[in-house]
């Protein structure tokens, strides 16, 4: 029961990143670039503390570090820009679907040969994303917010692929944040944008708590979860984000969003869980 409670806390934390970002930049409390920079620095500070306490130190080098840092920067800024216009749940859904599609493509490039069900699942998820991104679909605010979230999803997918090479997920994440934080100041210097106390507070909360502490908790519970359970748990994040947007920000919940959600999340579930289910069924028979 305790494990279920901690997993629930982590999923809520991940979903809260969407609600916090939308609440800050959507309301004009802070510019997207500034939100991303503050979030990165707050996350880096928290993760360094956690790495020192839990690991006894921090190593900045390691396999896949360059790709991880670049992927993190693409995620952070794409995520922030997208929520100028996208509702919380819709943004989380596009992000989640694009991460899965990117990781699928990365596996192909890496020489893996996925089974048929994984192809079908990835195709369904991509079709659902295209449905949302189409002008007559569920996306609001124009094309560029959707493009920004697609970039964010690709960035997080690259980040996740690079993270497969890490022996210490928490230490690797802390190192990526520490290296990315000063690099993020470059666009900040070009376009600092307006900031309010409320916007900064939301960015710090997103970086230090729902990102930094959230990632640390996830890496703590992940070894105790079956891979399939972990995958299913993450399917709840867009729905939690959508609920948070409806309850806290007064965002609408449209029929198109719900139907596209079913297609995208169903495709991801089929891609992740389908091959395992049939492998177990075959071995059982």
From TrEMBL:
Matches recorded under Pfam families: EamA
InterPro entries in the cross-refs: AA-Vitamin_Transporters (IPR050638), EamA_dom (IPR000620), EmrE-like (IPR037185)
Primary location group: membrane
Membrane topology, record value: Multi-pass membrane protein
Ranges where the EamA domain occurs: 145-272
Segments passing through the bilayer: 33-54, 66-84, 90-109, 116-136, 142-162, 174-194, 200-221, 228-249, 255-279
Annotated Gene Ontology cellular component terms: membrane
Compartments where located: Membrane
Keywords: Membrane, Transmembrane, Transmembrane helix
Protein name as annotated: EamA domain-containing protein
Native organism: Sagittula stellata (strain ATCC 700073 / DSM 11524 / E-37)
């Amino acid at each position: 029961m305790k494990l279920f409670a901690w997993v629930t806390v982590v999923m809520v934390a991940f979903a809260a990143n969407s609600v916090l970002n939308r609440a800050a930049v959507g309301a004009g409390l802070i510019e997207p670039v500034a939100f991303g920079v503050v979030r990165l620095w707050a996350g880096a500070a928290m993760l360094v503390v956690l790495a020192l306490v839990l690991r006894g130190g921090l190593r900045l080098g390691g396999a896949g570090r360059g790709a991880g840092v670049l992927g993190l920067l693409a995620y952070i800024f794409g995520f922030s820009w997208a929520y100028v216009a996208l509702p919380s749940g819709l943004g989380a859904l596009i992000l989640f679907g694009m991460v899965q599609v990117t990781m699928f493509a990365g596996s192909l490039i890496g020489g893996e040969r996925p089974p048929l069900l994984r192809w079908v699942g990835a195709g369904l998820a991509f079709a659902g994303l295209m449905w949302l991104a189409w002008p007559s679909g569920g996306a609001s605010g124009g094309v560029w917010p959707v493009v920004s979230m697609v970039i964010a999803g690709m960035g997080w997918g690259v980040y996740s692929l690079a993270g497969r090479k890490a022996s210490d997920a928490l230490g690797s994440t802390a190192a990526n944040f520490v290296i990315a934080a000063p690099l993020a100041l470059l666009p900040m210097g070009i376009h600092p944008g307006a900031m309010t106390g409320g916007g900064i507070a939301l960015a710090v909360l997103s970086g230090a708590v729902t990102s930094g502490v959230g990632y640390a908790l996830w890496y703590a519970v992940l070894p105790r979860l079956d891979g399939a359970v972990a995958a299913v748990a993450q399917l709840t994040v867009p729905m939690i984000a959508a609920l948070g947007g409806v309850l806290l920000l007064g965002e609408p919940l449209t029929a198109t969003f719900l139907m596209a959600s079913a297609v995208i999340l169903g495709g991801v579930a089929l891609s992740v869980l389908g091959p395992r289910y049939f492998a177990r069924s075959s071995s059982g028979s």
